[in-house]
Amino acid sequence: MNSKEEKLKKISRLLDIVDELRVKCPWDIKQTFESMRPLTIEETYELAQAISDKDTQEIKNELGDVLLHIFFYSKMASETNDFDIADVADAISKKLIYRHPHVYGETKVSDDKEVKRNWEQLKLKEKGNKKTILQGVPRGLPSLVKASRIIDKVRSAGFKWSDESSYLDKIKEEISEFEQAKANKSESEMEDEFGDILFSLVSYADVMGINPDNALARANNKFTNRFEKVEKTLKGKSFVDCSEKELNNLWGDSK
């Protein structure tokens, strides 16, 4: 393993490269916060995919891409005297120390759930209690991830049912309301109620300690693999040429 001095030397090298690219590369010179934003989002998704694939080499590569973006944003900000990479590191260091009083202070905690509750309360205190609990959820998150973050935050604040069965009852209630909307033949009402079903499922997943985005990603991969097996079995034959029974048999065989 590299010593701390060697690690700092390699980080310093990347800082020097970013400085040089910003001066000498026509593409890098033209970039702004706005132009980099979609690229940063893409890199984040590529990192997430590498993590899902459990590919440590690719995780390392994608982390490097994300780190480059952090350095690059900091370099651009330094050019307008807003902040630099040292300010970024200092800000997160102060935040981590403040939000871990059980490590850097005298606070006692019994488990990770209590750590999360304290974290949310400390975040509110940082804003002088002027910020609501859910204001910290980014508006641009994908809907499934956003639902998960909303539920996680309100549960950490103590807004929750005491038993697991209540969450299952809520799912059943929402399904019943969807069926009523379906009977009413109201498309907008059906969409609303279906959203409530999904939200209730995400809430139940949180109670069970399941990350719904990871679960859906696994389901997507599972379905894709099985579908491709069926597709190969058809050997060029169209799905529309198969009976429902044939398709069910093929699907069962793909498992």
The string of secondary-structure elements, in order, is HHHHHHHHHHHH
Provide mean pLDDT, rounded: 90
Radius of gyration: 24 Å
CATH homologous superfamily identity of the domain at 4-82? MazG-like
The CATH topology of the domain at 4-82: Helix Hairpins
Broad CATH class of the domain at 4-82: Mainly Alpha
In total, the number of strands is 0
Helix/sheet category: mainly alpha
Figure out the total of helices: 12
The low-confidence runs, each spanning 5 or more residues with pLDDT under 50, are none
Distance between the termini: 43 Å
Name the helicity range: over 70%
**How much of the sequence is in beta strands?**
under 5%
CATH architecture of the domain at 4-82: Orthogonal Bundle
Shape: extended
Major β-sheet profile = none
